[in-house]
Amino acid sequence: MAIVVQKYGGTSVGDVERMKRVADRVSRTHRDGNQTVVVVSAMGGTTDDLVGMASAISDAPPQRELDILVSSGERISMSLLAMALAERGVQAKSFTGSQAGIITDESHGKARIVDLTPGRVQEALDEGNVVIVAGFQGVSAKTKDITTLGRGGSDTTAVALAAALEADVCEIYTDVDGVFTADPRIVPDAQKLDTVSYEEMLELAAQGAKVLQVRSVEFGRNHGVRIHVRSSFSYRAGTWVGPQEDKVEDAIISGVAHDTSEAKLTIQHVPDEVGVASKLFAALADANINVDMIVQNVSQKGATDISCTVPRGEVDKATQVLEPLAKQIGAGDVVLDPEIAKVALVGAGMKTHPGVAAKMFTALSDAGVNIQMISTSTIRVSVVVDADQVEQAVRAVHEAFDLGESAVEQGAS
Ligand code: ADP
Ligand code: ASP
Ligand code: MG
């Protein structure tokens, strides 16, 4: 019997009618003879509403309580889906993340899964149930408190469960047909990719393509889980995420990602001495702040500016860490720019093709977009631009590399 893990995102379970349609699809998978595990997100907008209520009560709600609150959205979905399946004569049992054996560290709001003990899930499957698991949550091994895995975390619940259960496939059902060459909401002629490698998907997700949470792709790659991203509104094939060998075509570029959730911090006049950068970034790491891009200018008169990007939600914490430290090491002010966006071009083929960065920068300059920061990996070029130019920048880069649907059709004729 095949084991199938299916994850349904917020839009797919957005209201009672959609929940019923999900129940139809799940029943069909179960009746086709598969052992079926379903991971559900909160109904669309619920997590935002819960976070909004917490912020209306407190500027800094206790993280433990915030996690208990936001994890409740997924519990609503899991129980409603179990009821809808019962209504269809399908035996189903729902479990919270903790009941499903999802063990995490104690980092509230962005916990990492450290162990998975799906004994109850396996038992319930063996008894012939469809098993429903609340996405996005686990329990800390140390504190025994409920934790959440960060926004978009239900993807990670699903892929981690698929890895632990050695599932044949992990299907991620969402509101678009698969992974596209850019966010189809911003680039209307973006194309669906039939396949994408783990490495490229990791870069796309890390650079903001929110169709998969980055940690879910890490799990997929580390455990060889075949991930199929597809629409819950159709039966069309979506995008397969897997090893590089599985790719059907070897395009130079896979896509363009963008991210408006980060802010830029600049520490001015940092003394150009051994060990200074290590002090600054060790302090941010100790405070559990994820730093993304880092740029250090050439030093002039023994001092230099260092800029980095951090998640907007962690800017206050980062500033509190950096300001006293900057004083202590004899640096200047810590300056914040929240109005930035990252735009990244990703593709395994760029390793062997020179001139990709130059072409991207030319496209941005032709579109009148100023580049503030640049960082690269072997398969990615990322830039930081003004937040209000992000859509323009994404479209310009997408077009320069002929990634659009119309570009392909023209090429073919
Ligand atoms: P879900 O609620 O199903 O988890 P998300 O909103 O988290 O869905 O992710 C799906 C959304 O990701 C799409 O609606 C789309 O706007 C956005 N997205 C961003 N980049 C991409 C991309 N490259 N391919 C597909 N979708 C993308
Ligand atoms: N409900 C959570 C969120 O909105 C988790 C998820 O949907 O994956 O981020
Ligand atoms: Mg999501």
State the name of the first-level CATH class of the largest domain.
Answer: Alpha Beta
Q: Strand share of the residues?
A: 15-25%
**Class derived from helix and strand content:** alpha/beta
Number of strands: 20
Low confidence ranges: 409-413
Query: Looking at the structure, what is the overall shape?
Result: globular
Assembly annotation: single chain
Major sheet attributes: 8 strands, mixed
So, CATH architecture of the largest domain? 3-Layer(aba) Sandwich
Mean pLDDT: 95
The percentage helix is 25-40%
How many helices in DSSP terms? 12
The CATH homologous superfamily name of the largest domain equals Acetylglutamate kinase-like
Strand ordering within the main sheet: 3-6-2-1-9-11-12-10
CATH topology of the largest domain: Carbamate kinase
